[in-house]
Design brief:
Layout lengths: L1 H12 L4 E4 L3 E3 L2 E9 L19 E8 L9 E3 L29 H8 L1 H17 L19 E5 L1 H7 L6 E11 L2 E6 L12 E7 L2 E14 L21 H10 L4 H19 L10 E10 L12 E11 L9 E11 L3 H7 L11 E4 L3 H12 L5 E4 L26 H11 L6 E3 L3 H6 L1 H7 L6 E4 L4 H9 L1 H4 L4 E8 L4 E6 L8 H12 L3 H8 L8 E2 L7 E2 L4 H21 L5 E8 L6 E8 L3 E3 L1 E2 L5 E4 L1 H14 L5 E9 L4 E9 L5 E2 L4 E2 L5 H11 L5 E8 L8 H14 L4 E6 L4 E6 L2
Parallel strand pairs: 6-8, 6-13, 10-11, 14-15, 14-17, 15-16, 17-18, 25-33, 26-28, 31-32
Antiparallel strand pairs: 1-3, 2-3, 3-4, 4-5, 7-8, 7-10, 9-10, 11-12, 12-13, 18-19, 19-22, 20-21, 22-23, 24-26, 27-28, 27-31, 29-30, 32-33
Helix pairs in contact: 2-3, 5-6, 8-16
Length: 751
């Protein structure tokens, strides 16, 4: 130990900025050594040997080595009389050596990465900036006022209180619950932030064994400088915390553009109202009468540690001594208080790296099963908690294997999944969370229920039901088209080897049906995706957990579900933080070869071409953008010659919709001429069968396409060919798609 410290001290002496190294001393497991640091003073201050900020040309610093050296980096301390009106100084008690905050992070990690010289480098850089008055770098943010010694802690949401502060220079009062002990209080500001015109004070004394304390309700006054010319007043002068009595509080308020007289009157009125109550039994308030004052200050940059928030909040505790002989004697003391962040959506977002995101965006979640619950909880912990949960099922015992929540029922009737989600989100400070004990089909089919569950302003409806019935209802539901909310669908395939997230386009220009077809079209050429979707057929795919067929569930581990949920939630977080794209998007996660990680891909999908179909009997043909683009390109390639090929798609009899998702190119024996195209038969059936297999049976041959470079509609030959296809399909609809220079023409036949 001693030898290692000696080596480190020797290295300190070799640093270019070190003028002297003193004799080390060891006591109580600590080794201390004084080091003189040469400081680069501004040119105008050099002849005085001290900068305008009070930094000397040579500063004596004490490096303290702990007993666990070299695991812990040495801590630097400056002289006890070092100027304290500088930023980036750690909490300090009078008479003690001053601890500069020289590095934004762990000094231990810095030393282990770059050596002990890096610690000295940071100290030297700090002293240079302190001498020149440039410790605050607005590109990094505003350094909040340092609170060195505070007997009180006030808990509140900084974002919410900042938003509450009046912009006209007036004060607003709200309530807080407090506990008083040992000369200070711990107070929790009312999270509802309801303004109180005439706030009251009360106090109850408590004792348990030798412990004595008091609790009650007190007023919190929030003040801010008024706007000037419609803009916030910006205060860019750093002021160390020096408020120590009532007058200095009023002075500090005035320095920050706040009406000191209005603040004094508000406190005076509050005391007067409270003391009228105290006259009944003044001895019950033996701990004093408390008020909290929070000064909201607009800074020139976002606060360090609070990106996106440029309003600094300075809390103070005003304590009036109660004199039973003269209750109207106002003897007040004031001390700064620590601000502890209350749990809030904004705090969750900031902690998650999403500061400034619009966390209040309404979201509706259909299905609160394993995947839906985990995705929702990820979003809730990131601050997005204004959710409406829809699920008609209760949490069953087997759900505990992979559900995000746990329930320990004390009654015979278990809790509903939606209710449990709402309760959990309420605990996460999401007061707007709602629960609906109903199924998704009812919501999508009932206008009254839909408006209730998907209120105006909802940005996203997330379908996590994995239900084909719900998918079918989505295709048919006119309610989704009537709202500004975007629909997304998420599910897993292949025993969790594949995670899918499909986002519909703006105004449903791309639907979940379209994106499902696109997913399986991608399987035709992406073997990894195809394998992930398919899973392993030799594995057990279902296990019984009850006595009915609804008790069937897939054997997937909690970790596997969490893996998919995390990927999906991350993508949704990005959408919510940066704005939903206008286009549809398909996100796909596929399991890596190690069967642990997943590869995530996100593709955009332009608007689907919906064709006006004649003589169709109510069918709708939707042609994905990729198919449209290929046909346009092939038509341009062949010019005046007709060309064509086979169409691959998915038929929904429930929605009477045909989604054309892909193509099979014309065989080599096809004929292309100026007025005629004949689709060849060589390898055609084999290629169509292969397309069907590669899409895992989701896509099939749905018809043909060809071009009319000279324009025109379906010829007699075209219609005869379509009729033959319809007969071959044995009742399935057949599509004949014609490209012309000006439009696409589509006919559907069914025999």
């Amino acid at each position: 130990m001693a030898e290692a410290v000696d080596d480190a001290i020797a290295r300190l002496g070799r640093h270019r900025a070190v003028a002297r190294v003193g004799t080390p001393s060891t006591a109580g497991g600590l080794t201390e050594v004084e080091v003189d640091i040469r400081v680069e003073l501004p040119s105008r201050s050099r002849h005085e040997g001290q900068s305008a900020t009070g930094v000397r040309e040579v500063e004596t610093c004490t490096f303290v080595f702990k007993s666990d050296w070299p695991l812990s980096a040495p801590r630097p301390f400056l002289r006890a009389d070092f100027p304290l009106d500088l930023p980036h100084i750690n909490a300090h008690r009078p008479g003690q050596a001053v601890s500069p905050c020289i590095f934004e992070g762990s000094l231990d990690e810095l030393m282990h990465r770059f050596g002990v010289d890096a610690v000295v480098d940071q100290l030297v850089d700090w002293l240079h900036k302190a001498a020149s008055g440039t410790l605050i770098d607005l590109s990094q943010g505003w350094e909040p006022a340092r609170r060195d010694s505070c007997p009180s802690t006030i808990v509140f949401s900084a974002e919410q209180v900042a938003a509450l502060a009046p912009l006209d220079g007036s004060l607003v009062a709200i309530n807080a619950g407090y506990v008083a002990i040992d000369g200070g209080i711990s107070a929790l500001v009312d999270p509802n932030l309801v303004p109180v015109p005439e706030p009251a004070f009360d106090q109850q004394a408590h004792q348990k064994d030798d412990l004595k304390w008091a609790s009650g309700r007190a007023a919190v006054f929030v003040a801010r400088a008024p706007l000037q010319n419609g803009q916030p007043q910006i205060f860019s002068r750093y002021q160390p915390e020096s408020v120590a009595e009532f007058e200095s509080l009023l002075v500090r308020a005035a320095d920050l553009g706040i009406d000191r007289n209005a603040l004094a009157k508000a406190l005076d009125d509050y005391y007067g109202r409270a003391i009228l109550v105290a006259k009944q039994n003044p001895r019950t308030w033996s701990y004093g009468l408390y008020a909290v004052v929070i000064l909201a200050v607009q800074r020139p940059a976002s606060l360090v540690g609070a990106p996106g928030r440029s309003i600094e909040l300075l809390p103070y505790v005003v304590r009036y001594e109660i004199d039973p002989k003269d209750l109207f004697r106002r003897a007040a003391t004031v001390h700064p208080a620590f601000h502890a962040h209350a749990l809030s959506p904004e705090l969750l977002a900031r902690t998650s790296g999403l500061a400034g995101a619009a966390v209040s965006q309404p979201i509706t979640v259909l299905g609160c099963g394993s995947l839906g619950s985990k995705i929702s909880l990820h979003l809730g912990r990131a601050g997005f908690g204004n959710m409406s949960f829809v699920d008609i099922e209760a949490l069953s015992p087997h759900n505990s294997a992979r559900h995000a929540l746990l329930d320990y029922p004390t009654a015979l009737v278990p809790k509903r999944k939606a209710d449990l989600m709402r309760e959990t989100f309420t605990q996460l400070s999401h007061a707007g969370a709602r629960a609906f004990d109903m199924d998704a089909v009812t919501v999508l089919g009932n206008p009254a229920k839909f408006v209730e569950v998907v209120p105006e302003g909802t940005v996203l409806v997330l379908d996590a039901t994995a239900s084909l019935k719900v998918l079918a209802v989505q295709a048919l539901s006119p309610l989704l088209a009537s709202t500004g909310a975007r629909l997304a669908r998420t599910l897993m395939y292949g025993q969790g080897r594949c995670a899918v997230l499909a986002l519909e386009g703006h105004q449903r220009a791309v639907t979940t049906d379209d994106l499902s077809a696109l997913l399986f079209e991608r399987c035709r050429w992406d073997t990894q995706l195809r394998a992930a979707l398919k899973g392993t057929s030799s594995e057990l795919t279902q296990v019984f957990v009850g006595d009915n067929c609804r008790s069937l569930t897939a054997p997937i581990s909690d970790a596997t579900v969490s893996r998919s949920a995390a990927l999906v939630a991350m993508q949704i977080e990005r959408w919510l933080a940066h704005g939903l794209p206008e286009v549809g998007q398909l996100g796909v996660g596929t399991e890596q070869d190690d069967r642990i990680g997943m590869n995530w891909s996100l593709v955009s999908q332009e608007a689907t071409m919906v064709l006006p179909v004649t003589d169709d009997g109510g069918w709708t043909v939707r042609v994905l953008a990729g198919v449209r683009d290929y046909i346009n390109a092939d038509a341009a390639r062949w010019g005046s010659y007709e060309t064509g090929g086979a169409l691959i798609g998915h038929v929904s009899h429930e929605a009477r919709t045909i989604v054309v998702a892909g193509l099979v190119q014309a065989s080599a024996d096809s004929y292309r001429g100026p007025s005629r195209f004949v689709l060849g038969t060589e390898d055609l059936k084999r290629n169509l069968r292969q397309a069907h297999e590669d899409s895992l049976g989701y896509l099939a041959f749905v018809g043909t396409w060809h071009t009319h470079p000279q324009g025109g509609t379906h010829s007699g030959i075209d219609r005869a060919t379509l009729g033959w296809l319809a007969e071959e399909f044995e009742g399935l609809p057949a599509v004949s798609l014609i490209w012309t220079p000006n439009s696409f023409i589509c006919v559907v036949d069914r025999r």
